Amino acid sequence: MISIKKFIERDGEELLRATLDSYRSVLTAMGESGVQACPSVGSTLRQNLLHLQAALSLDPTPELVGKTGQLVETELTHWSSGAADYFRQRAGEVKELMVILARTAELAGERDQRYSLQFQEFTGRLQAIADLHDLELIRDSLVKSANDLQACAAAMAEESQRSVTRLREDLSMYQARLEDAERQAAQDPLTGLDNRRRVESSIEYRIRQERAFTVLMLDLNGFKQVNDTCGHPAADEVLKQFSAELKSGFRASDVVGRLGGDEFIVVLDGGSQDANAHIERITRWVFGDYTISAGGSPRKVAVSAAIGVAEWRPGDSLRTLLDRADAAMYRDKQVDVKSGACRK
To answer: Which domain range does residue 225 map to?
Structure first.
């Protein structure tokens, strides 16, 4: 205990810095875990935790650390509530679908039983005809039985068609709802781009297919200044505008996603030569000034990004490829004093 006390007294500042670094790392890990557990609400949790993490980097005071802990608890409560609602909704949809199928099977069973009784009646009538000796009565009974049988068959066909049509409509509705839920689960809620899970799934698919493709990883320069000088709403507006421009610069077959914070990723079909042509287009048309509303008045923000390029090579895993792109991005990372500054 004495040695620990001496260590704290001697290296208190270093210990505090290490503790805050660990705290910030925990916030990042919590955000990533939230996305993995429930993507539909996890992206919001991760974004809010990143904002809290950035606030701790400015001037961490005991009051700020305490307040951050309370805010983290609030964010986790909101996330758990949203995740629970999401899974309840998904379970409810599956339950409704099962109820529809059960009801359809039940109706089909009732219909078959009803028509089975009618066929038994026809059989009894035909057996009774065998005991008749008057040809006129036999003919009239046969004609009546034939007409009744034809009407019964037509009613069965019509009722079956209505049942099938109704079932198809119900299934189409639930399929559309499930597809919409899957699309939302694969989408970044702020920008509308693909989220990390969707991007990584696309990369793994291309690796299995052994298709030539290239990964571009982008990290906005000086984005922290946007948060500090313009505020979080303005920063979110920059991210949304940049995402729209970035998406428009690529083909429909390419995957454009947001990894989190101010990091983006693009999966391009083709080699590095094709990627270089896209980088030139990004630099010319996507980078530049963006107009946002900050404090009630329009401001301009200069936006650029460091870009890392990694072409897939046979034998590369998902992690190997992303690590290589990430390393290339940080080699390209140069702080631009103009980037991120709000100006009128």
So the answer is: 196-343
